[in-house]
Amino acid sequence: MKITESKLSLLMNSFKVRSKDLAEYLHVDSSLISKWKNNKRNLSNKSNYPESIAEYFLNLDKIYDYTFIKNLIHQNYPKANVEDMKELKNYFQKWILESRTLSQKPSKNYSKNQNEYSTTFTVYRKNEGRRKAVLDFLDLAISMPENQEILLLSQENMTWLIEDKNFFNEWDKKLYKLIQKNHKIQIIHTIDRETTKIAETIEKWLNLHMLGGLKSYYYPKYQDTIINHTLFIIKNTCAITGVSKSTEQKEIDCTYFFNDLHTVKNFQNTFFTIKEICNPLIINQDIKKSEELIKKLLNLLNEPDNEYHYSDIPQFTTMDKNDLIQILIENSVKKDKTLKILNIFDQYNEIHKNKNIKTKYLYNLKYKNILYEDLSLLCEKEIYVKKDLFKKHIKNTLKKRNKNCEIGFIYEKSKKNFGANCIIKQNHKIIAYSNKNKPIITSNTEPTITQAFEFHFNEIWNSIPSMYKKDLNLCKIENILKK
Questions:
Q1: Which burial class, exposed, middle or buried, applies to 299 when counting CB atoms under 10 A from its CB (0-12, 13-18, 19+)?
Q2: Cα–Cα distance measured from residue 183 to residue 237, given in angstroms and rounded to the nearest whole number
Q3: Alpha-helical regions (H) of 331-472
Q4: CA distance 90 to 348
Q5: In a structure prediction context, what are the per-residue pLDDT tens digits for the chain, which is 483 residues long?
Q6: Which of 126, 120, 132, 133 is nearest to 240 (CA)?
Q7: DSSP letter for each residue of 159-223
Q8: Burial class of residue 51 in the structure, from the number of CB atoms within 10 Å of its CB (0-12 exposed, 13-18 middle, 19+ buried)
């Protein structure tokens, strides 16, 4: 059945306005109001009546903090700033004029009582529905102006995210687009999950941290919850929510998509209440403070526990000192920075010379140019190395192998990979870094997260065949590089 109720009729019925009252305010005959109300005559945008009608109903809604009209505009124009009165009035007038009939049947249960209100929302069924809801959510966020706040929290099983590879690729691309549009993402992780699940989460999110614009927190308490929640929010715009009985429930029952302002704000308050008792998971550090980070790193490496080092190419600390000096000269590095880098080199090698520390180095030889990211960070410019010096570095690195120092190269077809250069100190901290105009980042020392990193890199290490670890020599590496 076609809905023919006019927008003016909705307003008058919602605010219980008689035709006579509105006619007196507009100084027109009440019969004209009846014609507008019953769609027998259109309002003209060339007259002052649309503006006057907008002002009339805004005045009526003022004592309720413009609740009705804000929700009305928010649902029809998600990008409108309903907190700006001038913009609210302009959009309200636009809504009145755009069509004389409603596109959907309005709720008849809307109440001016501040303790109750009715709203509409969309329900998505099962995992496929959750994916559709999330894509709609991300597309809306991408379409909006820069600097939107995106809030994410999920305790539910993430099967819906990873079981469909095409969807996961779309999810990944759209998250990058959000960052590129300078949207700010805040995400709360829970640590009451299996180590494998935490490791998967780290792998999926760490690359986005490198781009900036993403802040991660973790809920520091372990809890056995009967009901697990999901909250995805575009601040003051829309919210996705869902609940499931346990993290083992792989099929989502329902996902709810709200876009009325009051419900969205209620979910926002819930998110920020949880965030208040959370700790930072990963802390972004300005690249200009790299020296401060190096001091922390050297102190950390001095601890007697085992280490993992993961990077695309070997760190400059494993090369011959004379070769390092030559590289710095060829890249026109200033004297003061050269001295600082050589000092770091000496301290690092002294630590590993005197300490009985078991260290595993993992190198992922997938690259086009030989860019030394650790040197680039310290020099604050890109440092490239010629192939002959790089080969000497590889050869020198292989010489360092002993009972406490193992080296593995991730071969071309390995399924295990990681998106950042990392140094993991067992039971202490993880430091991750990358160049390409991305910030240095450091991980929190929360034990469960640290263990998850160790678990993840153990898996990578165990996936590397022996020929790319114990039996590796320079000739084999050169063959890898030619592939």
A1: exposed
A2: 14
A3: 335-354, 373-379, 387-399, 447-463
A4: 64
A5: 344 678 888 888 888 889 999 999 998 998 999 888 888 888 877 888 889 999 999 988 887 778 788 888 887 887 788 888 999 999 999 888 876 555 544 443 344 555 666 777 889 999 999 999 999 999 989 888 888 899 999 888 778 887 888 988 888 888 888 888 889 899 887 755 555 666 666 666 655 665 667 788 877 665 556 778 899 999 988 999 998 876 667 788 899 999 888 888 899 999 999 898 887 776 666 655 666 667 777 777 777 778 888 887 888 888 899 999 999 999 999 998 899 899 989 988 888 776 677 888 878 765 566 888 888 878 888 888 888 888 888 888 888 787 788 888 776 544 455 556 778 777 666 677 665 555 555 655 666 667 777 777 777 788 777 777 766 665 666 665 555
A6: 133
A7: HHHHS-HHHHHHHHHHHHHHHHTT-EEEEEEESSS-HHHHHHHHHHHHHHHHTSSEEEEEE-S--
A8: middle
Instruction: Please name the residue that has the structure tokens 């301290």.
Output: 347
Cβ proximity of 242 and 256 under 8 Å: yes
Q: Indicate the length of the chain as a whole number.
A: 483
What is the residue type of 298?
L
What's the CA dihedral at 163, 165, 167, 168 to 10 degrees? 90
Q: What residue type is 251 in one-letter code?
A: E
Q: Is 86 left (phi over 0), alpha (psi -120 to 50) or beta?
A: alpha
